[in-house]
Amino acid sequence: MGVKGFVEGGIASVVAGCSTHPLDLIKVRMQLQGEQNVRPAFAFANVGAGCPAAELAHQKVGPISVGIRVVQTEGVSALFSGVSATMLRQVLYSTTRMGLYEILKEKWREPGSKPGNLPLVKKIAAGLTAGGIGAAVGNPADVAMVRMQADGRLPVAQRRNYTSVADAIGRMVRQEGVTSLWTGSSLTVQRAMIVTASQLASYDQIKETIISRDIMKDGLGTHVTASFSAGFVAAVASNPVDVIKTRIMNMNPKPGQPAPYSGALDCAMKTIKVEGPMALYKGFIPTVTRQGPFTVVLFVTLEQVRKIFKDLNF
Question: CATH second-level architecture of 2-308?
Answer without folding.
Answer: Alpha/alpha barrel (1.50)
